[in-house]
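Hi, here's the filled form for the chain we discussed.

Project: internal
Contact: R.S.
Residues: 368
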Amino acid sequence: MNIVIIGAGASGLACAIRLKQNMPAAEVTVLERLEAPARKILATGNGRCNITNAEAENYKEVEAFFDSLGLMLRLDESGRAYPYSGKAQTVVDVLLSACAKLGVEIITECTVQSVDEDLTVCTDSGIFTADAVVCATGGKAQSSLGSDGSGYALLTALGHSVTALSPSLVQLKSSSKYPRKISGTRAKCRIALELDGQIEAEEFGEILFTDYGLSGIAVMNLSEKAGQNFATDEPKKCVAVLDLIPEMSEEEIRNHLERFGNLTGILGTALNDIIMKQAEGNFERAAKYTKSWRLIITGTKGFDFAQITCGGIPTSEVDGFESCKVNNLYITGELLDRQFECGGFNLDFAWHSGIAAADRITEKNRDN
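And the returned structure, exactly as it came back:
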């Protein structure tokens, strides 16, 4: 059996390895547009690779898969799973070593131009024929690392649809001068995203103030709604509403101000100074701003800075990751309209979808 996988990222490599584990005699070829495979894996988790999460749906499956390759995981206090070495390079080395050992052929600097219904794959490096094709190209996030959105065109040409695309798990831009003035300051607080006066998403966690606006895990987790809003022709007015001290009421904060004259002992100097300056020293206004600090959001940092793409091929158009449009065509990972929060959940889905597609191909081959 001859299988062609388009994309040497997380789901593509997991699929290739699982196929060869299941069917050693199968010919498995992975086509990668960039000069090297797994570029995006190297960048995940700030170079540590947050492989999965103990709370993720497929954690046990993913853990067992990497255990079969000799890679041990280590959990942090939040359940995020990393390679025991703490290095993303270890994950890539283990994956590529497994591919080499099992006989997976990886062809780099190969751009796929089209896939026909008979599973002929046309590329700038030649034509490949296959019994099954797995499309694992990734979405549009961070095109420099491989996912340039080309997979959507390949699949729409085969009859698939694509939901609206927008950047997700991405930083937010603000027109307010205040984040710039305290750029580099961090705060653990509650943040809500308001669209035309309605709260659409809310998170608690770390916020990082930057020269362009807001970053941090809490911001990333609610950025999906912002990205969807700014992808429309007429976006709604978008405001980030921050509760900088969620453990205290407005009255308690005002009492603290009347007692000590500032919030430095709670918020730190930089954040206290900016709040007190905005409130012009008025304790009542300062307490109100602390509980409901409103910052206008003008957009996101875009696909080049996003961790994932929101939108994609509807899950209703696949069955067990096999296309409902073309027999023996499989779609995995970020190409699908499935998004999750920060913390390893998106990579968990990428590994799982590649593994599940491989198992489906194996099962169909046995039935035949």
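Let me know if anything looks off before we file it.
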